[in-house]
Here is the input.
Amino acid sequence: MTGIIILIVLGIFLFVIEFLLVPGITVAGVGGLVLTVLGVYKAFDDFGTATGIWVLIATMVLSILVIAFALRAPTWRRFMLNTNVVGTVDETHLEDGIKPGDVGEAVTRLNPMGKIMINEMVREAKSIDGYVDAHQQVEIVSAVGTHITVKPKK
Here is the structure.
């Protein structure tokens, strides 16, 4: 009987891992199903129908209780990060005089996002004309907030 209990407990443990840590159909879920079914089958095979039915009912109730307990919010509060992240968006380029018509150089390939060098500063920009290769001249189309839009200089 100890072997049957171990199979069922390991199966339920693998189900919990499947539901909470590795969502989807993975080895943990398939392994949990195989171990649980094998444990119930062994109970029917070794101890008869009456005991097998009791083991099946106990397995279903235990599975539901374990999953319900694992999904409760207080269980996860112990694992949560309880700090607030305080930050701001870098808007210094607004004060640095980036304006439409300025010319810069693509530092990285813009496809469509990438880095540009403008007014001795490296900023992130978006190309409106598809891809722009690195080291190609770009012209500022717009600079609103932290969004800089460029096009290749012709």
Remarks:
- The CA atoms of residues 45 and 52 lie 8 Å apart.
